Amino acid sequence: MSKETNTPTEKLFGSKTRAKLLKLFFENPEKSFYVREMTRVIDEQINSVRRELLNLESIGVIKNETFDNKVYYSANNKHPFYRPMIDIFSKKIDTARDKDIKESTWEDYCRPVKNYLKALVITNRLPGQDGIDLLIIGNDRTKKLTRWAEVIEKKQGKPINYVIMSPDDFTYRKSVHDRFILDIFEMEITEIIDPDKIIKG
Q: Residue 22: which of 3, 44, 5 has the closest Cα?
């Protein structure tokens, strides 16, 4: 006999995918997401995500808008359950996972890829603001940094805009005052990890 693995929210809302989507929307009520972005973050099949989006839209708790030929979904702030849903999902019911995220630092996150990662810039990108959340500098020939970024995205529970650059590419761009690099450092920086002094050197 298999063990029951459903979380309290899954039991309450009747579907693992539905519970994950509601958590994504109501933990980030000011943000909108497109379908493939959601499937990547909540780690569920696209057909299941599409089905649950139709269900949630039919009862009005989410809404959609189209930009640049992409359909974006977000929490419906006009729905009478909008505030109660935020209250439910902002309490972080999955306390074990939440504790792990709060107690982990970026130094902890970087440990699995310390042999590939040369530097990391974490920005405090505001909702709707252009730019990136992470500038990852290192050797990604084996795609270990790409896979690591995807894991971080799932741990954070929201889409992350990131760019991976080789150390040589970053050094060159910095030397010629590349606009993309300048724009990153004009953003609010949460943290810089730079053991080899690539950024500050």
A: 44
CATH of domain 104-193: 3.30.460
Q: Is the per-residue pLDDT at 94 higher than 90?
A: no
Token readout for 24 is 């994504």
Task: Give the full edge-to-edge strand order of the sheet including 189-193.
Answer: 162-165, 134-138, 117-123, 189-193
Q: Which CATH class is domain 8-99?
A: mainly alpha
The answer to whether the CB of 133 falls within 8 A of the CB of 161 is yes
pLDDT in tens, 134-187: 999 999 999 999 999 988 887 777 778 899 999 999 999 999 999 999 999 998
3-class state of residue 198 by DSSP: coil
Domain ranges of the chain: 8-99, 104-193
Q: Which ranges constitute the DSSP H helices of 67-156?
A: 82-90, 95-103, 106-110, 144-156
The pLDDT value given to residue 98: 45
